[in-house]
C-alpha cells in the first residue's frame, strides 16, 4: 500500500505509547523502532534535530515530532475512530484539557518525587487532579463513551505509570477517597481492549521505576 | 441575542492576546475587545477562565475558549468559510503546530530571560539562546515559505500569527539592548517577513506601537527581574 508508517519510541515512555494507542485505535499498521536514549540513533537525530527526542512518527518518509502534534496528524490523516470531536467548541475543550494534563498535571505529579517540601508538592498535584476529576464528571472516558484525545494524552495518569510511581515512592496521589471518578476512569482505561495492548509490560515498568526511584521506605 | 456574539478578554501589550486579535481580523470577525487591567482581574475573566485565570479568553456566544493557540485554531474552525489560517495539508499543519509549540516552549522563555536578566552576563547568555532559536526559525521559514512572503505562503497563517504575536516585543528588546535580533546576516528571511507581517491588514492596527510597548515593558521587566531574583535565592 506504500503508506509506510514508522514510529521511533521508547518502551516505557507514556509519550511514545500515546502514539501507539492512536495508531492502534485507528487500525494503522506501523513499524516500531526502539530507541536507546543513552545512545540516540543517527535516524532519530536526523528526524528530530530540534529536540532530539522520541516519539517521532515517520509517514511516507516525512518526520513529525512532539506527541500532541503527532496525535493531531494521525487524527487528520486516518479518519477511522476519530480522536477529536467534530464540533469546534468541543475540539477546543479537548485541546484545552490535553494541554492542562501536559503542562500542569504531569509536572505537578513529577514534582512530588523530587520536591523538598513534599506535602506542598502533593497538595499542588491534588489541585490539578481535582480539576481533572471535575472535568471528567460522570463520563466513562474524557472522550465520552469511548477513548478520545484527552484520555490518550492522560495515559500517564490512567495507565500504570502513576500507580507504580506512587506505590514505589510512597505517595498518595491518585486515591479512591479523593478522586473516585478518576480512579474508575483509570480502571476503564487499562481494561480497554485496544489500550491494554499498548501499555508497557507491567512487571518491566514496575522494575524500571523501582530502580529509578529506589526504595525510600 | 446576536447570532454571532464575539468578545475577547485581553490586554493590548500581550503577544498572546495579539494572536487572537489577528486571527479574528483574518476572518473579518467583529468583536468586542474587553481590556483587562489585570490588577485586579475582572469577575468575567475569573469566571471564564477559572483554571488559569489568564488572558486571552475568547467568548463566542458566551462560551469561553482559553489558551491563545487553541483560540486561533478555534477561530479557524468556527469561521471555516473565511480565509484559512492553518494549511490544508495534514503534514504542513503538523509542521506549523510543531514550530508554534517550539516558539512557546523554547523560544519565548529565552526571550523572557533577556528581559528578566539580572546582569550583563545573564543577558548575553539569554540573547545567545534567543538568537539560536531565531536561526532555527529562519531555517524553518526558508523551508516552509518556499520563497513566498509568509510561513503561510501568500497570506499570513497559523505560524505567522504564533510567532508574529511577539514582533513588537522583539522590537522593544532590540531597542532596550541596542541589539538586532532580526538581522541581515543571521535572519534575512525573517527580517523581510517582519516588515510584511507588520504591514498586513490583519495586523497593522492591532500590533502595539514599539514606543508605547517600551514604556509599558518597564513594569514587566521589574516583575521578571524580581521573579528571577527570588528564584536565585
Characterization of this structure:
The complex is a heterodimer of chains A (217) and B (233). Chain A is α+β, with helices and mostly antiparallel strands. Chain A contains eleven helices and four strands, in the order βαβαββααααααααα. Chain A has helices at 14-25, 42-47, 67-77, 88-111, 118-136, 149-153, 155-158, 160-169, 180-191, 195-198, 202-213; strands at residues 5-9, 31-34, 56-59, 62-65. In chain A, α4 packs antiparallel against α5. Chain B is an alpha+beta fold and 233 residues long. Chain B has a four-stranded mixed sheet, with helices on one face. Chain B is globular and about 50 Å long. Chain B starts with 5 loop residues before the first strand and ends with a helix. Classes of the chains: A alpha+beta (217), B alpha+beta (233). The interface between A and B is medium-sized, with 22 and 22 residues.
Rg of chain A, Å, rounded: 17 Å
Helix content of chain A: 40-55%
Number of strands of chain B: 4
Main-sheet strand order of chain B equals: 2-1-3-4
Listing every helix as H and every strand as E from the N terminus to the C terminus, the arrangement of chain A reads EHEHEEHHHHHHHHH
Q: Taking all residues together, what is the mean pLDDT of chain B?
A: 94
Number of strands of chain A: 4
The greatest interface here is: A-B, 22 and 22 residues
Low-confidence stretches of chain A: none
Instruction: Provide mean pLDDT of chain A, rounded.
Output: 95
Classification by helices and strands of chain A: alpha+beta
Helix content of chain B: 55-70%
How many angstroms separate the termini of chain B?
A: 54 Å
Shape of chain B: globular
**Multimer state:** heterodimer
- Uncertain spans of chain B: none
Q: Major beta sheet of chain A, specifics?
A: 4 strands, mixed
Largest sheet of chain B, in brief, is:
4 strands, mixed
The helix/strand series of chain B, from N terminus to C terminus, equals EHEHEEHHHHHHH
| Total DSSP helices of chain A | 11
Distance between the termini of chain A: 54 Å
Amino acid at each position: 500500500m506504500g503508506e509506510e508508517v514508522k514510529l521511533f519510541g521508547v518502551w516505557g515512555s507514556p509519550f511514545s505509547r500515546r502514539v501507539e494507542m492512536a495508531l492502534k485505535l485507528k487500525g494503522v499498521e506501523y513499524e516500531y523502532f526502539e530507541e536507546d536514549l543513552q545512545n540516540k540513533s543517527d535516524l532519530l537525530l536526523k528526524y528530530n534535530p530540534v529536540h532530539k527526542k522520541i516519539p517521532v512518527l515517520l509517514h511516507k518518509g516525512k518526520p513529525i515530532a512532539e506527541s500532541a502534534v503527532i496525535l493531531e496528524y494521525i487524527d487528520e490523516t486516518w479518519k477511522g475512530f476519530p480522536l477529536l470531536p467534530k464540533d469546534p467548541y468541543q475540539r477546543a475543550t479537548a485541546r484545552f484539557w490535553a494541554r492542562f494534563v501536559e503542562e500542569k498535571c504531569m509536572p505537578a505529579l513529577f514534582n512530588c518525587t523530587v520536591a523538598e517540601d513534599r506535602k506542598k508538592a502533593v497538595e499542588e498535584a491534588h489541585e490539578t487532579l481535582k480539576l481533572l476529576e471535575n472535568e471528567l464528571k460522570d463520563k466513562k472516558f474524557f472522550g465520552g463513551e469511548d477513548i478520545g484525545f484527552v484520555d490518550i494524552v492522560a495515559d500517564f495518569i490512567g495507565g500504570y505509570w502513576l500507580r507504580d510511581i506512587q506505590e514505589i515512592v510512597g505517595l498518595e496521589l491518585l486515591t479512591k477517597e479523593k478522586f473516585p471518578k478518576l480512579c474508575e476512569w483509570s480502571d476503564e482505561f487499562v481494561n480497554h481492549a485496544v489500550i491494554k495492548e499498548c501499555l508497557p509490560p507491567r512487571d518491566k515498568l514496575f522494575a524500571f521505576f523501582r530502580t529509578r526511584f529506589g526504595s525510600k521506605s | 441575542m446576536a447570532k454571532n456574539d464575539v468578545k475577547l478578554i485581553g490586554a493590548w501589550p500581550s503577544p498572546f492576546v495579539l494572536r487572537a486579535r489577528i486571527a479574528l481580523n483574518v476572518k473579518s470577525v467583529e468583536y468586542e475587545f474587553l481590556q483587562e487591567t489585570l490588577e485586579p482581574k475582572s469577575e468575567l475573566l475569573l469566571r471564564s477562565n477559572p483554571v488559569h485565570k489568564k488572558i486571552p479568553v475568547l467568548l463566542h456566544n458566551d462560551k469561553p475558549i482559553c489558551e491563545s493557540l487553541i483560540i486561533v485554531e478555534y477561530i479557524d474552525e468556527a469561521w471555516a468559510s473565511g480565509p484559512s489560517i492553518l494549511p490544508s495539508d495534514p503534514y504542513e499543519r503538523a509542521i506549523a503546530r510543531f514550530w508554534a509549540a517550539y516558539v512557546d516552549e523554547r523560544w519565548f522563555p529565552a526571550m523572557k530571560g533577556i528581559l528578566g536578566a539580572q546582569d550583563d552576563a545573564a543577558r548575553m547568555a539569554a540573547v545567545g539562546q534567543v538568537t539560536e532559536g531565531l536561526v532555527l526559525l529562519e531555517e524553518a521559514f526558508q523551508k516552509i515559505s518556499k520563497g513566498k512572503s509568509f510561513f503561510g505562503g501568500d497570506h499570513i497563517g497559523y505560524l505567522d500569527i504564533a510567532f508574529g504575536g511577539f514582533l513588537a516585543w522583539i522590537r522593544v528588546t532590540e531597542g532596550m539592548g541596542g541589539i538586532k535580533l532580526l538581522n541581515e546576516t543571521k535572519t534575512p528571511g525573517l527580517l523581510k517577513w517582519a516588515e510584511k507581517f507588520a504591514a498586513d491588514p490583519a495586523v497593522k492596527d492591532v500590533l502595539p506601537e514599539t514606543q508605547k510597548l517600551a514604556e509599558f515593558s518597564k513594569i514587566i521587566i521589574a516583575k521578571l527581574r524580581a521573579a528571577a531574583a527570588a528564584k536565585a535565592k
